[in-house]
Design a protein that fits this description.
It contains 8 helices and 11 strands. It is α/β, with parallel strands linked by helices. The chain folds into 2 domains: 107 residues, no CATH class; 153 residues, NAD(P)-binding Rossmann-like Domain (Rossmann fold, 3-Layer(aba) Sandwich), CATH 3.40.50.720. α4 crosses α8.
């Protein structure tokens, strides 16, 4: 989303546009209220759903660029007349914008995000950062090793060196979802223990996910039980992580599976507001 808004502002510096937004929906529709698209005379940024709906919206937006007196709200039935079979209805608004509107647009188009903490900058962690860099999350990437992070990371990623690594848990943003995949099982255990202790006191880490097998988790469970954690507390940890049914172990595939699970459990991206 930050990439799209950056592209919008870059183009808006040179020419005016029409901001098309999904105002309301009913029934089955391709995009949610708040979704947007900016239409310029010879290009468009982002999407309100694609297909004939979007083609008609682009045509109306470009007509509005030439004739500001045209209607600034249109209702579309997603049926045979549009060559679509969603069956719902979408109401789109059309607002002329220029470079002078940038401050207001930065606020208006700022997506809601969820805080995520990722422990570990190994192969899977690095791949996951690239995926999460495209999603509505505010990501803190943590590792205990010096020079663990690449020089270039997505704009929504904040790198943090912490030694001992579990020390960073106390400073996580309340409501953070935590993903644990450090370079060693010993560090993983320390991080999970710190998360459970924080959860016991504050109850503000909605998801704690640990990379690894069921065997790894069985070992961790026994050690954590010996440290006094109850079955109810241990049930807060998800291990293995990633949506079910994906067995490919390549880092990039694991990253997609984990990101998908994170979207499920946090509801991130469920709304453009």
């Amino acid at each position: 989303m930050q990439r799209l808004t950056a592209l919008l502002f870059s183009q808006l510096a040179h020419s005016n546009a029409i901001l098309v937004r999904v105002q309301a929906t009913r029934g089955s529709v391709p995009r949610e209220p708040g979704a947007w698209m900016a239409v310029f005379e010879d290009s468009a940024v982002a999407t309100v759903g694609g297909g004939r709906l979007e083609l008609d919206a682009i045509a109306h937006a470009r007509a509005l660029l030439r004739n500001p007196a045209l209607e600034r709200e249109q209702r579309y039935a997603l049926g045979p007349s549009l060559g679509q079979c969603c069956g719902g209805h979408v109401t789109l608004s059309f607002t002329p914008v220029s470079a002078a509107d940038r401050p207001a647009l930065e606020i208006q188009l700022r997506p809601s995000t969820v805080p995520v903490a990722l422990f570990g900058s190994g192969h899977v962690g690095a791949a996951l950062v690239q995926v999460l860099g495209l999603l509505p999350v505010d990501l803190t990437w943590i590792d205990s090793r010096d020079q663990a992070f690449p020089g270039d990371v997505p704009a929504n990623v904040h790198c943090e060196h912490s030694n001992p690594v579990q020390g960073a848990v106390a400073h996580l943003t309340p409501g953070s979802s935590v993903l644990v995949m450090s370079f060693s099982h010993a560090e993983d255990l320390d991080i999970v223990q710190a998360c459970l202790l924080r959860q016991r006191v504050q109850g503000d880490l909605p998801f704690v996910g640990l990379i690894g097998s069921t065997t790894k988790w069985a070992t961790f469970r026994h050690r954590l039980e010996a440290k006094g954690f109850s079955a109810q507390e241990l049930a807060h940890v998800t291990c293995p992580i990633g949506v079910a049914g994906i067995y490919d172990k390549r880092p990039e595939v694991i990253a997609v599976a984990v990101a998908a699970q994170l979207m499920q459990v946090t509801g991130a991206g469920s709304s453009a507001h």
